[in-house]
Design goal:
single chain; about 40% helix; five-stranded parallel sheet; Rossmann fold; about 200 residues; Multidrug-efflux Transporter Regulator, Chain: A, Domain 2; three-stranded antiparallel sheet; disordered C terminus; alpha/beta
């Protein structure tokens, strides 16, 4: 008996394209059990359209037309991974830049809504990145939340004057960060703070 082709299934790339995220983000949601997938006999993931709709409905900020996109800019790869894991688990589209130069390219390609920007990085530091973004008419409206492990009144004043909304002190606290980003806070990941 020939197999029926089911059009009520989507590939990971189709889900990614529909939600305007990368396939890596879709894989992250699946690995965390947030978006259920079925495996084909060949071991490929397929998603029921009804499951994708359920996933979207549970996340008001994520829809087929609009969702939160966050660019993490930090040369500390562990912090980038922790933040990415947590945000992706909440259904946020995430990209990571490891330095200021990489951030400039990803701002153009990824078009984030918010940038989480480390102050102290080699090459272009957070102050330079913030100033360049805020001086560019095409990116000046990007929300920039700065973060540092070396807080001082001088650093805070300087980054605010450069155009950042605020300066958060590492370790960042998940509940505070969720409030600032405007996303519902529920700690399913067990990460209450990020080093």
């Amino acid at each position: 008996m020939p197999q029926t082709i089911h059009k009520n299934y989507m590939t990971p790339n189709e889900v990614a394209e529909m939600l305007m995220v990368s396939p890596i983000t879709v894989r992250g949601w699946t690995n965390k059990g947030l978006l259920k997938a079925e495996l084909t006999p060949g071991g490929h993931r397929r998603f029921l359209v009804t499951e994708v709709d359920r996933f979207v409905q549970e996340r008001p900020f994520l829809s087929r037309k609009q969702h939160l996109r966050v660019l993490i800019v930090d040369d500390d790869s562990a912090i980038g991974r922790y933040l990415s894991t947590w945000l992706t688990g909440l259904g946020v589209a995430v990209e990571i830049a490891k330095d200021g130069f990489d951030a400039g390219a990803k701002v153009v390609d990824f078009e984030p809504d918010i940038m989480l920007l480390d102050l102290m990085m080699p090459g272009l530091d957070g102050f330079d990145v913030c100033q360049r973004i805020k001086q560019n008419p095409t990116t000046e409206k990007l929300r920039i939340i700065a973060m540092t492990g070396y807080p001082s009144p001088e650093n805070e004043q300087r980054i605010i004057e450069s155009g950042a909304e605020r300066l958060l002190v590492k370790p960042l606290h998940a509940e505070e960060l969720a409030l600032i980003l405007g996303i519902p806070y529920h700690d399913k990941t067990g990460l209450s703070q990020f080093a």
